[in-house]
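Changelog note: in this version the structure field was regenerated for every chain. One regenerated record is shown below for reference.
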Amino acid sequence: MPVPLRYLVILGSLMALIAPADESSSLARTNLLRNWPQWRGPWANGVATHANPPVHWSETNNIRWKIPLPGKGHSSPIVFGDAAFLLAAVPVGEAQKPVFDDAPGVHDSVPVTHRHQFIVLAIHRRDGGILWRKTLREEWPHEGGHVTGSLASNSPVTDGERLYVFFGSRGLYCLDLKGGVQWSKDLGRMHTLHAHGEGSSPVLHGDTLVVCWDHEGGSFLYAFDKRTGEQRWKVARDEKTSWSTPLVVEHEGKPQVIVSATKRVRGYDLATGAQLWECAGLTENVVSSPVYDGHGVVISGNSYYQQAMLAIRLAGAKGDITGTDRVAWRLNRSTPYVSSPLLYGDTVYFLRHNQNVLSRLEPATGKPRGEPLRLEGIRDFIFASPVGAAGRIYVTGRDGTTVVLRHDRENAALAVNRLDDSFSASPALVDRELYLRGERFLYCIAEAGPR
């Protein structure tokens, strides 16, 4: 089947993830397409074009392995080569009376009762064995986060040669794929809204590593040299706490960083950090990350007190484009809160708030592709972002249920699969495998036989 044009466009951005200096680097770059190297997968849109994971599974069917995890984390796993990598926050020592360095927050905040180790795990894809475990920091966290959240919600990213880990207030790290620390940065302490925790993941493009630092103090966007950790630029942002992950796209031959947040969605020149454009229109507490359609349209949405989604045309976007024709379309209903959209082929899929209702739109026009679908079988909130592969869509709820749909105009349900865990992290899809990170276990879901 021919590769859609939008994937060829995005391919230019993805292939720039690492600058090949030798044959091994070139091979690693090619392998990124067949792996799940970052938050939202190789295309940063939730799609794995080379994967073909199972449709059906249960605790007794199509589980290659299931391993207990040492600590809590909503960081989604990434996969490269023979290993899956994920982050966790592990309580250590005796429980103590909570002590808050800052205000303890308001509704649904949880106190900290332990010191925590902030760790990286490398897990063998074949049998779930621990290849290595690295503790990067140990401390008493100054915020406990939301009752449904975790102290390790940022997902790592790899270029196939090194692993980049962002623990927010606990630091930014570069490791080799054997767990050796190459460099690290302490960016200070975040003070998040209501002390509800941190979650934005780092992103790579070429030899530049980008980190968003939006909180209730001074907010910034950072760019670092991925090899040395040297800061290339730091741009102040007039923003409050957000949890979305930046998106890097190539437009008219130049990469730009796009960040969704409460006051504005903004685009920045990757080389200099100069702001290129901005657009108002989202609402409070932006968690959902943007997606790019490969034809010059970025789609960004969120839901909290109100619901909003914007489709921004990058061609001619300059300065404040709020209310101009650079906004291709707007939506004020059924938009996502915690989960991010899935942009699969000619359809963008997204959940209504955290509920089990899936909307389907045409990316360029915002025209609905049928009525919203209720995902029968999911009985709890959905925090995980939907993913797609092999003509199928996978949506996982916190109750352990994953609904599998056909990726076509009807989106018929193919399966309702249940596991004995709660899932907030998004799935990773590689080869014939699906990785699900739960509150207690990491699952490798694969049909019997060699991978």
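Spot check on this record: The domain at 5-446 is CATH 2.130.10.10 (Methylamine Dehydrogenase; Chain H). The chain has a mean pLDDT of 92.
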